[in-house]
């Protein structure tokens, strides 16, 4: 399954590269690529759920801890920048997609909590 995820991620990267390389007037190609990108995101999400279901409880707990840490870091970052998500780099700051990222992380946390609950483990 992990090999399948690698394949999906490679294809997503290729689609992203093609999107960035398109000329501004290539609307039909753009929408076809966006549709393919959405399909790949859906496949990746389904595969991630399957991978999670096969993980040991210890691995799920470790992932949960990491995701919670990432969410706290995003929230701290948002506070540090006055509510505007930013990524700090050497000598500059640039906007990031913090809200979308935090929503995805929160959804993943909820999926892992649900899996753990099915296994009889309450980690609130």
For the record, the count of structural domains works out to 2
Q: Major β-sheet, in short? A: 2 strands, antiparallel
Whole-number mean pLDDT: 84
Shape: globular
Give the neighbour order of strands across the main sheet. Answer: 1-2
* Count of individual helical segments: 4
Q: Poorly predicted ranges (pLDDT <50, ≥5 residues)?
A: none
Order of helices and strands: HHHEEH
How much helical structure, as a percent, in the residues? over 70%
Task: Provide the gyration radius in Å.
Answer: 18 Å
Q: DSSP strand (E) fraction?
A: 5-15%
Strand tally, please? 2
Distance between the termini: 29 Å
Structural class: mainly alpha
Summary of the model, kept short:
The chain is mostly helical. The protein is 75% helix and 6% strand.
Description:
- By secondary structure, the protein is mainly alpha-helical.
- It folds into two domains: 1-54; 57-124, no CATH class.
- 75% of the residues lie in helices and 6% in strands.
- The protein contains four helices and two strands, in the order αααββα.
- It has a two-stranded antiparallel sheet with strand order 1-2.
- Strand 1 (86-89) and strand 2 form a beta hairpin.
- Helix 1 (2-21) packs antiparallel against helix 2 (27-54).
- The longest helix is centred in the first third of the chain and has 28 residues, at 27-54.
- It is globular.
- 4% of the residues are buried.
- The model has no long low-confidence stretch (mean pLDDT 84).
């Amino acid at each position: 399954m992990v090999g399948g995820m690698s394949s999906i991620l490679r294809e997503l990267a290729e689609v992203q590269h093609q999107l960035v390389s398109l000329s501004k007037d290539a609307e039909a190609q753009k929408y076809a690529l966006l549709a393919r990108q959405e399909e790949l995101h859906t496949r990746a999400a389904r595969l991630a759920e399957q991978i999670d279901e096969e993980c040991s409880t210890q691995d799920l707990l470790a992932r949960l801890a990491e995701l919670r840490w990432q969410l706290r870091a995003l929230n701290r970052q948002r506070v540090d920048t006055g509510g505007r998500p930013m990524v700090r780099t050497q000598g500059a700051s640039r906007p990031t997609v913090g809200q979308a990222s935090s929503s995805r992380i929160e959804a993943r946390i909820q999926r892992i909590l649900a899996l753990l609950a099915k296994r009889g483990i309450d980690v609130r």
